[in-house]
Write a structure and sequence with these properties.
disordered N terminus; Importin N-terminal domain-containing protein; Importin-beta_N; Importin_rep_3; protein transport; about 950 residues; transport; 2 strands
């Protein structure tokens, strides 16, 4: 053995077989990673060499098991490599097959280990999978060769006795080896696609071996006195491999299942052998899950009897007691697989005692001790079965028409029992237990609770108000017993049903009992040791059933008192604030008389000094929603002024913090102020269902523009400018400012947040290329141009001109390159798009406007999707014909004439191959619009198609001409 190579990177070159053997032994011993890597490189080089065949043959003669394994592995590598390059002749291939079978016989008869024998089997399977291989009757070939103790020539196989007669005389080691080969063969061929002609031949040849596999398995699986259970175990595993292969072949209609099906009773018998229980139950679980069609009605009936055994009952008892041992869990998975495969019979045949017993066992799986996904490892899978069961009942119920199936009532009762069992499993753990869970345990338990909600929602059309009433009664009972975790679980389940109730009033009586009870009084109490989770779920229920409180105002005072008390608890503040907003928004008219109390409660909240931004936003938004419902603007002034004063405190804090160089605190206060203003503006918008005054003669109110309300509006503008001036670089500040402005864009009448155009224009003009969220600022300008404006046309035109000039300035700062910032480029082009057609005169008068069109064409040609799409939409809009003034029409025509050829060239290149398929529809729009509007488009497109820039050389002139004719038509 020698070392050669650069210093620090020495290679190993074995000279003799003994050297190779030593290297293999060192490979499997602990050592430095660098040395192991060099050994691997040396051995792989040897395996890939022409001498690899001889080394493989010699290594199999070693006294060391690991070396023999490496020799068998080398055969596999050589087969895959040398046949890939057609290095083996037909004669060499036949000789190699004989050599491999000879080695397998020799090693098995010598008592070789499973590790080495299986690896030789892998080499034989690799041989089978080579395109040049002609080893059709592989299993029969091995059986006969083992029987003779030597390799039987493949051309004499037809002259030998039938496989079934020979198998019975083989030794157990020989049977094992053949079973290992047969299993691996089915598994490996099953991985290969059968779509090509070559690979389809593999499947044809494997299918032709069924006639040899069946007698092999029939002999090996039959349990006879004194037979080694290990043989039966390997036979069941082999049977499993062939059944799973048969599934695919059956789907392709390339295999008759009957011969294999005849073996199933033997596998069922193996259930009764203690040493074979594990492998058999795994087999049937796999078949039931993946290929239940393989099993006959008789097979399923035989399997059903197993669930009535003493052993099955014992497993269920163990699971119920929280003992999730390996055998019990295997049984549970088997039971669930059987349930999924026979769900229709389990639902319909409730009178069958065995099937009824199985259904009861499936219910018991929902009643095991322990928390789901933490201690109880089977509950989630059981819940999945009951969801499947319920879905089948729903389909049957609605598919039966007016005549309900006779079995429906009993099956429906089973669903109710499953829901009751699931409800118990949703109980939250005490705090000390929950605190000990890791993140995976918490996530698993949370996911289980979500699955229970899915079951409830799925089952509601079937069990309807009955289950709602049952849960409502459970909630009242839990409340009476002060069983707070039970109450939480019940409210959690009731929350899940809210979206399933089609007739909102149908459950009002039950909800009235619940909300009219001591629920809110208890939840508000600071004396009761109520878990925070229970209070939180109660808050969520208010949000979920907001529509109930719209219909029943009498429950609002107690409910709102509970919500405002919940604001004191940090763990509840955010969900309570969200519920307050929901309640105020829905019941705004009713709550107007309580507006003063709401303002007082908000003042108390701020006085505590612990409220988060989210909490402030939601509560202010709720109060603003009530103010919106006040009919007269004059009556809104006072409460709105109070809200503005609350927000001004945050702005003052922001200024103070910034002056004291406490940037982090100043930033938090400033962002809080603007977010509260944005939420307030959104809440003051008229509801979607509000009556819109269509009488054009009705005079617009001047209260907010020139009356007393103008001072409040000025304060809002001042607050925005102050915070933005202090933190122009902050994206949240810029975004919140834009949201404040946008809140007034939807309004059809003057209001506090309906600002003059100049406010938005000033914000846009004050922005620079380095302004945070400049794309959002430009999007706000787009929204401004899209909104309904009541200001004089000269004012609007002036604003549009200013925005157009500013856009050109931004494009120039970008160097005219959209790729320098695709998001800004996309938003800028969208702004240009919004100017067409109403503000084309403003665009036309913009200095150097040609830079805008150059910019859009670059964006259209670029690879970035966002500016690409924006540019396509811009040109699709621009090239259309509009009713505009003569000078504007001339401007559009001139631009189209100048840029039309370039536009066509880019579109043709993109559609011809440069663009992704998903972008073609977007690119087709400007093309269609241009063809419709411009007679010269045909010529421009023709020139583009014949250009040297066309991306695909495979498209000929005929195809181009046909394409052009089609789109022109």
């Amino acid at each position: 053995m020698s070392l050669s190579g650069d210093k620090g990177a020495q290679s190993i070159e074995p000279q003799t077989y003994a050297d190779v053997e030593k290297l293999v032994q060192k490979l499997y011993q602990p050592g430095p990673p660098q040395e192991i890597a060099r050994i691997q490189d040396a051995l792989q080089k040897l395996q890939r060499s022409q001498q690899g065949w001889h080394f493989a043959d010699t290594l199999l003669q070693s006294q060391d098991e690991k070396v023999r394994f490496f020799g068998a592995l080398t055969f596999t590598i050589k087969i895959n490599q040398d046949w890939q390059g057609d290095y083996l002749s037909d004669a060499d291939a036949i000789s190699l097959l004989d050599r491999l079978i000879e080695w397998l016989i020799r090693l098995v008869n010598a008592g070789e280990s499973q590790l080495v024998v299986k690896k030789v089997c892998s080499s034989l399977i690799a041989y089978y999978l080579r395109p040049a291989g002609r080893w059709e009757h592989c299993i029969r070939h091995l059986v006969l060769s083992f029987h003779k103790g030597r390799v039987v020539p493949s051309n004499t196989l037809t002259q030998e006795p039938q496989t079934g007669l020979v198998v019975a005389n083989l030794s157990l080691p020989c049977l094992k080896a053949i079973l290992w080969f047969a299993s691996g063969l089915a598994e490996e061929v099953g991985k290969i696609s059968s779509t090509s002609i070559q690979t389809h031949k593999y499947h044809e040849r494997v299918s032709s071996n069924i006639g040899e596999v069946v007698p092999l398995l029939n002999c090996s699986m039959a349990i006879t006195p004194g037979q080694d259970a290990k043989i039966t175990e390997e036979a069941v595993k082999c049977f499993q491999s062939w059944v799973m292969y048969a599934r695919r072949a059956w789907i392709d209609k390339a295999l008759d299942l009957e011969p294999l099906r005849l073996l199933t009773p033997l596998a069922i018998q193996a259930f009764h052998h203690e040493d074979l229980y594990d492998v058999t139950i795994d087999f049937f679980t796999d078949v039931l899950t993946s290929f239940s069609a393989f099993l006959t009605a008789g097979d399923l009936e035989s399997l059903s009897n197993l669930f009535a055994s003493t052993q099955a009952r014992q497993f269920v008892l163990e699971l119920r007691g929280g003992d999730f041992n390996t055998e019990a869990m295997s049984f549970a998975r088997f039971l669930l697989a059987y349930g999924d495969a026979t769900v229709q019979d389990l639902a319909k045949k409730s009178g069958d005692p065995i099937l009824s017993h199985i259904v009861q066992q499936l219910l018991e799986l929902l009643r095991c001790e322990g928390y789901p996904e933490v201690e109880d490892e089977i509950c989630t899978q059981a819940l999945e079965f009951w969801t499947t069961y319920t879905e089948y009942l729903i389909d049957s119920f609605f598919g039966a028409g007016e005549e309900k199936p006779a079995w429906m009532d009993s099956a429906r009762q089973r669903v109710v029992e499953a829901i009751e069992a699931s409800w118990v499993k949703t109980l939250m753990p005490p705090h000390e237990i929950a605190a000990s869970w890791d993140s995976d345990a918490r996530a698993g338990f949370k996911a289980f609770r979500a699955d229970v909600q899915d079951l409830l929602q799925c089952s509601y059309p079937l069990v309807g108000e009955d289950i709602f009433e049952k849960l409502a009664q459970l909630a009242l009972q839990s409340l009476e017993k002060r069983a707070w975790l039970h109450l939480e679980a019940t409210l959690f389940c009731l929350n899940a049903l809210s979206d399933s109730i089609s007739d909102e009033g149908s459950v009002d009586a039950m909800l009235s009992q619940l909300f009219g009870s001591s629920l809110f009084a208890h939840m508000t109490s600071t004396v009761e040791p109520i878990p925070a989770k229970t209070r939180q779920t109660a808050v969520n229920m208010i949000t979920t059933y907001t529509a109930f409180f719209e219909r029943h105002f009498e429950y609002l005072p107690a409910m709102l008192n509970f919500l405002f008390e919940s604001l004191k608890a940090p763990a509840l503040a955010n969900v309570a604030a969200k519920a307050i907003l929901s309640s105020c928004s829905s019941c705004r008219q009713t709550l107007i008389p309580e507006l003063g109390a709401f303002l007082q409660q908000y003042a108390i909240l701020l006085a505590r000094g612990t409220a988060e931004v989210y909490t402030k936003e939601k509560v202010i938004s709720g109060i603003a929603a009530i103010i919106q419902a006040i009919p007269m603007d004059e009556d809104k002034y006072g409460p709105l002024s109070a809200l503005i004063q609350f927000i001004e405190r945050d702005v003052s804090d922001c200024i103070g913090f910034m002056e004291a160089s406490q940037a982090e605190e100043g930033q938090a206060s400033g962002i809080c102020a603007l977010k509260c203003l944005a939420s307030m503006g959104k809440a003051l918008q008229a509801p979607d269902d509000a009556v819109i005054e269509l009488d054009a003669d009705t005079p617009q109110s001047t209260f907010w523009a020139g009356g007393p309300g103008a001072s409040l509006q000025a304060k809002i503008i001042q607050m925005m400018e102050t915070v933005r001036g202090l933190m122009r670089w902050n994206g949240d500040v810029v975004e919140a400012s834009c949201q404040i402005l946008r809140s007034g864009y939807k309004e059809s009448a003057p209001g506090l947040f309906v600002f003059p155009l100049k406010v938005t224009v000033n914000l846009v003009l004050a922005s620079r290329l380095d302004t945070a969220r400049l794309d959002y600022v430009l999007d706000t300008a787009c929204a401004l141009l899209s909104k309904r404006n009541h200001e004089p046309e000269t004012t609007i035109k002036s604003a549009a001109s200013a925005l157009s000039n500013n856009l050109l300035g931004i494009i120039q700062l970008m160097g005219g390159e959209p790729s320098s910032d695709p998001e800004i480029a996309s938003s800028g082009i969208d702004l240009a798009d919004k100017m067409v057609p109403h503000y084309l005169d403003c665009m036309m008068s913009t200095p150097n406007v040609q830079e805008l069109f150059d910019f859009t064409l670059k964006a259209l040609a670029a690879a970035e999707i966002m500016p690409n799409r924006a540019a396509a939409h811009f040109w699709a809009t621009f090239v259309q014909k509009y009713e505009v003034s003569e000078d504007v029409a001339m401007f559009v025509a001139a631009v189209t004439q100048q840029y039309g050829p370039q536009l066509c060239n880019i579109l043709v290149r993109k559609i011809g191959g440069e663009a992704a398929r998903s972008e073609l529809e977007v690119l087709a729009e400007p093309l269609k619009k241009l063809i419709f509007a411009q007679p010269q488009a045909k010529m421009w497109l023709s020139d583009a198609l014949s250009s040297e820039d066309f991306p695909s050389q495979k498209v000929g002139s005929t195809e181009k001409r046909v394409w052009l004719q089609k789109i022109i038509k």
